[in-house]
Design a protein that fits this description.
Number of helices: 2
Order of helices and strands: HH
Distance between the termini: 110 Å
Oligomer: single chain
Structural class: mainly alpha
Helix content: over 70%
Largest sheet: none
Amino acid sequence: MKVFGAFCLTILLLAVIASAIGVVWTRHESRILFVELSRLQSQKDDLGVEYGRLELEQATYAEPSRIDAEARARLGMYTPKQQDIQLVRR
């Protein structure tokens, strides 16, 4: 009976040690994943700020007055004179 008790005690001790190692490993993995989550959330915030800046820049480039100024400056476009306008009816 002493041998059986010692065997059971050894098995229980090994189970406790294995469980403790499992807990330590799980907490370690949890910390690693939390650091990664924090990094990705920070990256998401940075990308959100950049996206807002790019939307503002796009809105600025799409302003009709800016497009008109660019068309006149770069392409030499101009508003046609009244006598150059022809009305086409179907």
